Amino acid sequence: MTINIFNNIEHVNPFSLLFFRVSALRLRLGVGDHVSPVKPSGAGARSINQRAVPDPLDHRLIPLDRNHGSCAKSYGVDRARGRYILFLDDDSCPRSGSVERMIERFDAAPDLAAAGFTVFLPSGRREGAALPHVFVGCGVGLRAEALRSVGGLDRSFFMQAEEYDLCFRLVQAGWQSEVFDDLHVDHLKTQHARRTERTIFYDVRNNLRVAARYLPAPYHRVYAEDWRLRYQWLAQIDGHQEAFARGLAAARRRRALDRVLFKPRRLGKDALENFFRFDEIRQHMTDLSRSGVRRIVLADFGKNLYAFHKAAAEVGVAVATIADDRFCSAGRVYRDVPIVPVAEALRADFDAVVVAQCGVVQAESTYQRLRQQTGAPIHSWFTGAPQSHASSARSTNARPITKETQDAQPCAVEA
User: Does the pLDDT of residue 326 top 60, yes or no?
Assistant: First the structure.
């Protein structure tokens, strides 16, 4: 097990340390016999090199000379001896029974490399990746053999998108990566986790590196541009344009080298479908077209919006608008389709709404919110089991969202 500790041992959620010690006792027999929390030192951090952490178990604290971000977990991997490795952050803690179920999952599936946990935030919201089969780094079990066979975490990423980088390598190498709804971890996000200038810098730099490394032509250029736009607009919302510019420049400096060095690890057809679902989305869109749908609203400017837009164009379904309250702005378009507030999109002329998310957490959150706003047909294909909601009286059943109804709805946080 590896736990990232930022600055001081006191910063760690005490429940994580308690879980860490109890679990080590329970899992020592050939499973998790080496437990290794990781401490990246930050500026102004008090040195803990001389401080002993009382523990009768094989519990090692690894002081580092500087902050290595989320990827500092890799130093724990170097020391770990167990068959399975559990990644936690200093503010995350698995719920009772989840680690035991994680081990059962690994034992039952020899090709399972990553067992992602369902992540819960203090507000009750869930946190999840924007693409299927990608875990959140604050709670994931990994098969040590698989992790090491693909090179482990890339420390050059520091933070942001390192999960995508690792998942893409694992799946392309023939391993499986899954997120399970019976494995639960609480993530007590602190102020360190806010969208800061540093977060924006690494978001744009690392996501563009992932596109350059793993996506085959022509998708590497398509998604690099889509993700550039997405993080540029997020930076504008948060007032971090300078950090975005630095991150973009850093990605461009690395692009050619990443493209060449990672050519042998480019995603093949099956791996690409595993994450981006081009064929599945096209089939769903074909079914919509055959049912008589001719004009749709795409809900959310998600990380995989291109796959939904592409499928609609291929089957002859027109996209009237893209509905997104966060990314909408006067005159803003995506591939000539206006991005407008949700309320405005729902007043347009359309036959159905399609939730343009293939991450389960985001898809479910958007679907539930839309149900509060409209009685129009809503199609969400990636909510665990595909969902659709329709009413013959769209306008009369519509219910405007207020602050109260927003707060009552389950929300998603994208990792």
Answer: yes
